[in-house]
Amino acid sequence: MQNLNEFLQTIKSLTISSLDENKNPFSSYAPYVKYNHKYYVYLSLMAKHSKNLTQNKIASIFFSEDEKDCSNIFAKKRVSIQCNVENSVSDLQLNDLQKVSLYRILEEALSNTVQHANATSVGIYLKLHNRIFSMEIVDNGIGYDQTQMKSKDGFGLMDMKQRALILEGQLTITGNAGKGTTVKVEIPYPAK
User: Fold this and answer.
1) Model-level pTM?
2) Burial code of 41-71, b = ≥16 C-beta within 10 A, e = fewer?
3) Superfamily of domain 4-84
4) Taking Cα atoms as reference points, which of 181, 95, 101 lies closest to residue 136?
5) Phi and psi angles of residue 157, each rounded to the nearest 5 degrees, phi first
6) Residue from 60, 56, 77, 55 nearest 68 by CA
7) What is the pLDDT of residues 177-188, one digit of tens each?
8) 160 pLDDT more than 90
9) How far apart are the C-alpha atoms of 36 and 98, rounded to whole Å?
């Protein structure tokens, strides 16, 4: 059998289970992203899981081999993981300048990914920790040579950096050839 990481790399979705206010289990399918050994699942605020996970921060995620790939339906490969749920941005209150600036930074970063990165996936990660709000845009594209980038900062990159400075924050771009790119903006929260 494949090792666990190899098996999970072939899976594109998971089943998430949460408990409602009466401790009844609720399960549904969801696509996910794995980043830095954590699983990220986007849930709409209208989804039943959102309400459940607000009340009870414990969930279970379940990965299962596709039936068409298994040789014996009674011996499907599967993995279940018990989780503690982190939701650090659901009650975030941004002012209009922050909203517009962060949106424009995200828009430019995604535009650069589409135009230049040859990426097959991109993740957007929001986090609030120690009064710092961060947004990371991470792709698995061709990366870039940082020394060349410094000499050729285009208007889009300058605009992203200026928007971060207006919010009294900072923007960093990291990447190496062949290893993708990460655009990260960090701003104080709440705004000063």
Assistant:
1) 0.59
2) bebeeebebebbbeeeeebbbebebeeeeee
3) Electron Transport, Fmn-binding Protein; Chain A (2.30.110.10)
4) 181
5) -65, -40
6) 77
7) 888 999 999 999
8) yes
9) 26
Amino acid in position 99: K
Tokens representing 35? 């980043």
If one counts every other C-beta atom within 10 angstroms of the C-beta of residue 164, the result is 21
**Second-level CATH architecture of 96-188:** 2-Layer Sandwich (3.30)
Locus of tokens 């771009």: 173
Q: Which residues contact 106 (CB under 8 A, 6 or more apart)?
A: 124, 135, 137
Q: How many residues does the chain have?
A: 192
pLDDT tops 80 at residue 77 = yes
Q: What is the rounded distance in angstroms from the CA atom of residue 59 to the CA atom of residue 16?
A: 7
